């Protein structure tokens, strides 16, 4: 549809933003090499009509944020716009210079950032920040602007709209802050808002509320929007059109229905059908090798109880998925099992004998049997060690391997994670996000453990890369008979990997059993909320989901 | 004001008092270790053993050390700092005027130096890595790298000897008119300003640059604020705690570290008083001045801590 009438050179009535052959470059400084120029965006063109929403979608490095920010003439870091035109309201803003950019930022185009918690200044009250742009550009008096802000707070269904502006950012929850940020963008009545992953940092149950609030606000104020995200299911709820980007190039551009139902490009198809791993659930064996019994744990010397009477079992070679929102105690459970946070009550038994509560009380053999992989692969590795050293370390530590024997084993492990021998001498900084996570997996496998605790290991990765990691983990489980305790907030991931599931809510296990049992109705209220909040790639899902809910999410 | 803040502040003040007591013990012990005997020092080599014994009795020198310490401490707490051996004058009386002079000089140096340093820091951030930034940093570092006596004599040579705009000797006396007094302290105050400027400026620049990476600075830029408004309104308030810390350290230096500058300009302040009495081995005066310097240092650091606590919105406005 849109691509058929986007002809360069002809201003069209009703067109707000017309980006033509945009080219964006940056200078990178690779370690040990001369600085070089790289092209981030290759001749991308797009048009956006007044009051319409265009979704920009792609993996990290696709250039979607860079394109979004170019509509405000802004380049992050050393990013430069080196070619093309950005025509906003009939004029090329790239010709306006610094003064011109300042006049349009916060007046014609506003920005909603991914993490509102970081994007609000901790030193100022919310109201002062919300009306700042309006006052700066002189489009309203302070009293008018504040009245408008309160009306927007109400529209975005924030609690206490009259007084929430008096609060400081740290006094308001993440989901609410994201809505305040949307109000801030709408307050100066701009023509265009750039939403840059506005719900990505939120829990699913909070995301659905924020998404609905944003959608209503866009509809009622008739503002146009560029909606940037890596999640097709999310963008399908708010956009009129979707543009798929990859490596700074346009892949496909079309109406929302066409992109998600009839993708024309192979890459779009891969994005649409991601997460469809068929995993046949295994029946639990006779005896679990690791049992967590009635564990209660707390931080702050017993003041803040984060785990309440938690019991789960893990069977050899199987996967237990622990799901829940942030703050539900999932990672604390892992810390209690590994001994990093000694439980106040309850026991962890391993192979029929109790494990010492404290890490310091456990023999080396127990340490070897339980390994961990983390969300942030790059900070879990020493940046000054090569891949070979990193993977070789547990071989030396646990098995006393040296020299050629160790190198041979490292090569085997690299083979198992589908990375070639060429990576032995690389440093973590020279690897991609998915490769880094693979090295962490190899490091934990090197210890030949019975259990690997995977703490949100795919959350920081792009969907397609995450999928590759999940497939790898499943393959390794088959070969090595290793069990996983898989901590995640992402239910789609759970479906593709788990044999049994524990749903956690505020430190308690609210639902526990085999995958098929947990995911079959009737549900308890919380599991129902969690399951119904996962965005589905279907137009109109959002409205249906909001209507069908039995319980309000905790983030409000 | 909320209770967690009051609790934190009370903790800081209590710690400060404890620290000051510990330092008073150290100062007292230090002067006890010094060789020599006060009675001997007062009466000189020709004293008879009887008169020495009498004076020792009179001064309480035969009492155990801890009794003398508490005696001294009790005196300090009631405002009695003892008498100077060399002149026989009451120390509290002679210190009062000099402490006032030192504070006067430090005050005017600070009034110039602190706003100047912070403004230069803000400008350096605004034009970071450009020639303005490099010029400011270069000049400030150069002025700090020169020893203060060198700067002092340079100022005397140029402004007092060659141009005779200001006096080379900063004599002040009671009842001196304000204008003359200001003229007298112009050169030492300038020397002090140049010495402390760079440290505060560099820390301001570093603290703000640290904050400039934050997402909220980008938010401010995307609202269309000018570069300087972004720094002043959004970066500076979040960099205030480290800046206050370094400002207070330098304020403390202006009061307790001015010895060299006071001697160069023959300014009748605490530093000169201390140097005079160290050469005369006048132990009670050294003790008293040491304790006052420690008190100034500790209280300024307490103020820095409290200011940093109060500047934190998370502590000022708990959830």
Quaternary structure state of the chains depicted = heterodimer
* Approximate shape of chain B: flat
- What percentage of amino acids of chain B are in beta strands? under 5%
CATH topology of the largest domain in chain A: Rossmann fold
State the helix count of chain B: 15
CATH architecture of the largest domain in chain A: 3-Layer(aba) Sandwich
Describe the protein in words.
The complex is a heterodimer of chains A (556) and B (319). The longest helix of chain A is centred in the middle third of the chain and has 18 residues, at 204-221. In chain A, the strands form 4 sheets. Chain A has a 6-stranded mixed β-sheet, with helices on both faces. Chain A has 22 helices and 20 strands. With 556 residues, chain A is of the alpha/beta class. The model of chain A is unreliable at 1-9 (pLDDT under 50). The radius of gyration of chain A is 25 Å and the shape is globular. In chain A, α9 (204-221) crosses α22 and α15 (387-399) runs parallel beside α17. Chain A folds into 2 domains: 2-108 and 190-272, P-loop containing nucleotide triphosphate hydrolases (Rossmann fold); 290-520, P-loop containing nucleotide triphosphate hydrolases (Rossmann fold, 3-Layer(aba) Sandwich). Chain B is mostly helical and 319 residues long. Chain B has a domain at 97-296: MetI-like (MetI-like fold, Orthogonal Bundle). Chain B is built from 15 helices and no strands. The relative contact order of chain B is 0.14. The model of chain B has no long low-confidence stretch (mean pLDDT 85). The chains are: A alpha/beta (556), B mainly alpha (319). The interface between A and B is medium-sized, with 30 and 19 residues.
